[in-house]
Amino acid sequence: MNFELKTLTPAQAAEFPADALIVLVPDTAPKGDTPLHRLVAQAIKGADLEAGVGKSLATYRPEGFKAARVLLVRAGAADGAALRKAVGAGIAALKGPGVAHIGVIATLVAIDNAGLRSAVQAAAEASYVFTTTKPSAKPRALARVSFGVADANALREGLRAGKALVAGVEFAKEWANRPANHATPSMLAEAAKKLARGGTIKTDVLGPKQVEALGMGAFMAVAQGSAQPLRFIVMHYQGGTKGDAPVVLVGKGITFDTGGISLKPAGEMDEMKFDMGGAASVLGTFAALAELKPAINVVGLIPTCENMPDGLAVKPGDVVRSMSGQTIEILNTDAEGRLILCDALTYAARFKPRAVVDIATLTGACVIALGAVRSGLFSTDDGLADALRQAGETAGDLCWRMPLDDDYAEGLKSNFADMGNVAGRAGGAITAAKFLQKFTAELRWAHLDIAGTAWKSGAAKGSTGRPVPLLLQYLIDESQRKPAKAAARRKG
Ligand code: BES
Ligand code: MN
Ligand code: ZN
Predict the structure, then answer these.
(1) Same domain, 62 and 171
(2) CA distances from 352 to 87, 242, 401, 444, 448 (A)
């Protein structure tokens, strides 16, 4: 999909040639005497256009306009959140087989770079279609969205950021939406390698032999019941100075989670194809980095495998040795995410990172705690937690900090190993995070539990592409902070 910016006077706005126009309407009627002004003023005055962001009024061949279909949409204060809602509603109302080019007239509202980025994001979101395994799906007809603004030059950065964000979110959606037989660990690794073709990203892929040599016994235990070989994907984006400590992103890449021997019930088990949503968000973030090119170094780590029951599968009670040397009694094979992540977190330390953020569809308990609105945020470092929370607010991709009191780790004690991998039902999202924390002693670390936010269920079943917007925003913000030369700060 193509996005472009055009400087338009209000007079030119009415004559803008497109299959349909969205006119963003401010709260109060703007002064002026052009067809655009008259149409908007009349709609507001006649009370035909309800108040409230996203409320719209469809018109057909209004006087003085070139486009046949003109949709007036309330944009309120025209900030990021309002534009996301207004443009999303507008595109959703207008999209259809005959609409390839939509003009969004934003000359009557005060739009800034962040606002334009949100508008671009919303336009893509509202017109997204997954077609890879559905030949009968009508592909996205919308090929071009032109934003008509008062001064295009002032908004170039917003357009660039919006396009990069869309590339990232759609990359993540594509891979998360693919069924598990179209997104095996090897296929994810190939996708990561393909991202490296552009030149700005470097990708290394480790297989079972190398992972064994590293001593990743926890990761291997999860993979051992599957016919699909595991992969450990290592990606490098170097936009900063060589030697600057990188941010490391670690994404859970369970391409299908049956639960293993601790088998899940059949209902909605198909949704466990989304259990690589963390991995997809890391891939998507890298796709966005390659386009946006911020001045920061980033490493992406993706441990990826299936969690299957099988004659060779790991059994409840089995004890495995993690790369850190700590042993784990696997009491429930369905708590597999933490097992693949713990070895990746140990591996992360070798990059002497300025921060490590893992992203995982980790617990059903997090869905119960926070629902689909906010991702769970856990961190031992207040500065990192604040930075991530703020990035989420800026990007409209929200998260909420959860506690990490040591008392929550009590239930992880085991008589047969250094720890168990589960701790009962109570506080399940937190005890999972406490498990991960045992592998982050030397790191400035945060964990995002995206079990509730990575995909939608029901009729709108599909990946949300979250938390790519949050991660990209965090990395942009971080690129504007001074890199910590003395990396791997101890936890606060
Ligand atoms: N991938 C699941 C978590 C999940 C479940 C995400 C449902 C979204 C919706 C994870 O691997 C898992 O199975 N977690 C268990 C942990 C339990 C065994 C301690 C869970 O949440 O039930
Ligand atoms: Mn599981
Ligand atoms: Zn899982």
Answers:
(1) no
(2) 42, 13, 25, 10, 21
Whole-number percent of the chain with pLDDT over 90: 96
Q: What is the pTM for the complete model shown?
A: 0.97
Domains identified in the chain, total number: 2
Q: Do 362 and 397 lie in a common domain?
A: yes
Identify whether 160 is part of a domain: no
Which domain does 444 fall in, by range?
Answer: 165-479
Q: Give the 3-state secondary structure of residue 244.
A: coil
Nearest atom (ligand 1) to Cα of 275: 1
Q: In sequence order, which ranges of 143-263 are alpha helices (DSSP H)?
A: 156-177, 185-195, 208-214, 217-223
**Residue owning the nearest CA to atom 3 of ligand 1:** 363
Residue 51: φ, ψ to 5°: -75, 155
Q: Output the pLDDT for position 442.
A: 87
CATH number at residue 63: 3.40.220.10
Say if 310 falls within a structural domain: yes
Contact 85, 122 (CB under 8 A): yes
Instruction: Kindly give the distance from the C-alpha atom of residue 335 to the centroid of ligand 3, in angstroms, as a whole number.
Output: 7
DSSP letters spanning 5-52: EEE--HHHHHT--SSEEEEEE-SSPPP--SHHHHHHHHHHHTT-S-SS
Q: Which residues of the chain have pLDDT under 70?
A: 483-492
> For residue 335, is it within any domain?
yes
One domain for residues 214 and 86: no
Residue (of 251, 267, 250) closest to 259 by Cα position = 267
Query: What is the per-residue pLDDT for 491?
Result: 42
Assess contact for 474 and 355: CB atoms under 8 A: no
Q: Whose CA is nearest to atom 22 of ligand 1?
A: 364
- Give the number of whichever ligand sits closest to the CA of residue 361: 1
